Amino acid sequence: MWSDLGVLLGLALIITLALRGVNMLVASLLAAAVVAVTNGQSLFQALYEDYATGMMDIAGKYLLLFLAGAVFGRVIEEGHAATKIALVLTQWLGKQRVLWVTMLASSLLTYGGVSVFVIVFTMYPLCLGMMRRANLPKRLFLWALLLGPGTFVTTALPGSPSVHNNLSATALGTSLTAGWGLGLLASAVMAVLGMAYLEWGRRRAVARGEVFVPAPAEPREEASVKPEDLPSAPRAFAPPLVVMLVILAPQVAERALNGLSVDSLAGRWLRFAVDQPLAWTCVAMFTGTLAGLLLYRKLLSSPLATLSRGAERCPMPLFNWAAVIGFGAVVKSTHVFQQFSEALINAHINPLVSMVCATNVFAGVVGSASGGLALFYETLWPLYGETGIPHAVIHRLVTIASGGLDSLPHSGALITIMTVMHITHRQGYGTAFVITVVVPLVALAAVTATALLLY
What we know:
This protein is an all-alpha fold. The protein has one domain. Helices cover 76% and strands 0% of the residues. The protein contains 22 helices and no strands. The model has no long low-confidence stretch (mean pLDDT 81).
């Protein structure tokens, strides 16, 4: 009884503290202590062995990926590439479609290797000007900005360099493009439904007379960027495209050069790229960073200073993410979790459905899509054995499933992003819930039903 209640209390505590703006390291430690005490565990073992080990293992494994994303994003930001990309898309689509411009620009940058945290730092200053000109509420721009990076680009779109896609590729021995058909279907559903909801929200806001209201800490006037400080369109798009091409090239080459000898240098590189998707993603992003440094060399006052400022952005998202995984490690060591796992494995339901449900629940518990995904692969995946379902299908479905309940109010990423954009839960979480929870769950239901019919 107390053990069951303890897990719920720990979850309620981490949500409450997160909503109050408490640092995620502090919130997760306190919540982990509550779970440990109410489950009769040694506090020392829970915090020093389960929490700390779980946190540092995952942080160490993905340090280079977070570092590569942070550094690449800083080069894109200081080279004003994000601004140029948004301006080009505005010229193509028109100023009246600012929500579409925002969604497409942020999605392109994310697919090109820029993390969601860096997207916010990079795109938000530009979005402030776009918000003023359109005179629309900030919450609509926030979720247009995060529709791609926060949903389909990171979990569904084949070839994405996201942590989520790399987690599944590493655990299952698949490629980053695994389950591409299901991924494209889910991406289309999320993009169409998400933008339809945002456009409905835009029309409703106009009818109700809602306008743009800057936060006290934000500039009252739009900051202008001189044309000479912007790269040309080809140079702005080039580094993200380099990242995409480097990631996708091994998949294409493996099919085109099936007879290539593994003893050759090219063959060894190809095998490394295919067998080590996480390491290859880092190679791709560091290659994109090098391309950015060369293309934007006249716009960057000091390339080394730019790289240093990028590296400084790595710890916060990395440790926020690792902290919720540390909390999850304490939860998974409890008797309650073991009972839940056994019940799920022994339930008379399709294993694909149980995997999808488990990943979604785990993501909701730890408030992180990648955290829930990591918890699934560490705990439940080894128990499934041979299911007969292609690993490519499991890769895509489970990765998409991680992006449903992960955006509940205690989500560390959500709180960080809303803090940066000066939006409270009361102002923006209603829209966030639809965009980052309801829409992904609808897409998940569609692709799961499709997979069950096919497999």
